[in-house]
Amino acid sequence: MSLVVAMVWSFVVSVIAFKLAGMIVGLRVTADEASEGLDLASHGERGYNL
Q: What is the dihedral of CA 18, 20, 24, 25, to 10 degrees?
């Protein structure tokens, strides 16, 4: 029984945390950032040069 309670508790807290993070900072990047590359969009430099 305690295992089920712990699993449900973890699920509920995780859902709340993800919802809050989504409202505060967002969980997705824009299409432009994704096509440009997240290293360049987030940090201003390339992660590797090929």
A: -10
